[in-house]
Amino acid sequence: GPLRLDVVTIFPDYLRVLDLSLIGRAHADGLLDLHVHDLRDWTHDRHRTVDDTPIGGGAGMVMKPDVWGSALDDVLAAPLPAAPASAEVAEPTKVASLPAPRRVLVIPTPSGELFTQRTAENLAGADQLVFACGRYEGIDARVAEHYASSGVEVHELSIGDYVLNGGEAAVLVMIEAIARLRPGVLGNPESIVEESHTGAGLLEYPVYTRPVAWRGLDLAATEPVLLSGDHARIDRHRRDQAVARTAVRRPDLMARLDPARLDAGDRAA
Ligand code: 6GU
Q1: How far is the CA of 171 from the centre of ligand 1 (A)?
Q2: Which of 125, 135, 167, 213 has its CA 20 to 30 A from that of 160?
């Protein structure tokens, strides 16, 4: 069935861009079921307090575990969307129990494990993803601990080695990376296999379109192979360029390439 996405945040308006482009279309098409919640809806005091000073002292504020617990208990119990009815699969006699849905709690934090294409591929297989966006100095650490020890799959994830003021921008990044891997969300599934960070683990080769000569940069002079019509030579040439580009821009990736996925031509390049 469709993937249910829940985002809990004190800035629900920040997530409104999800209604646009790829994600909004997928939601409208019934491929994703997106819900954005205001954390303050689970507060009980007049001031709708979501944070407090750190125990042990220090700068900034910490988000309260009781408010997060109320919010996440509700959202993790929400009904999941049913798979669209299919005449082919309809089996009126079958009453056997379905497997429990896979509900995942994602806590974006600069101190989390690194979110990579592999993480996106893994999370794209869930039935529900709940994103708990922290602000200030983060969410009381017992929240992650509590849900993990209650049997919920919890991932504390960072999108890279820099600091953002809150998890909202990171959640936009993660949702876009995950949603486009779901069947039917991306227009052309072929563009998933050829792109960077999948397949051989190389960056993508440079791409060109018409005009062949532009501002003194003439592909007939610099990239004659691409104009040759010889598809075997074109594939080899592009692969060589991908290897060269990866070596220059991402020596860290180059060092970790799987030798089994490199050919003789790659090693020569
Ligand atoms: Cl997930 N959150 C915040 N606040 N900062 C980050 C991050 C996440 N990933 C990298 N920096």
Answers
A1: 9
A2: 125
- Hey, which CATH number is domain 3-80+99-179, 3.40.1280.10, 3.30.300.30, 3.30.420.310, 3.30.2290.10? 3.40.1280.10
159 is in an annotated binding site: yes
- C-alpha span between 143 and 96 (Å, rounded): 35
As for the ipTM of the complex, it is 0.98
Report whether 205 belongs to an annotated binding site. Answer: no
Q: Quick check: pTM over 0.90?
A: yes
pLDDT in tens, 200-245: 889 999 999 999 999 999 999 999 999 999 999 999 999 999 999 9
Q: What is the DSSP track for 175-208? A: HHHHHTTSTTTSS-THHHHHSTTSTTSPPPPP--
Instruction: Write out pLDDT tens, residues 55-107.
Output: 999 999 999 999 999 999 999 999 999 987 665 555 566 688 889 999 999 99
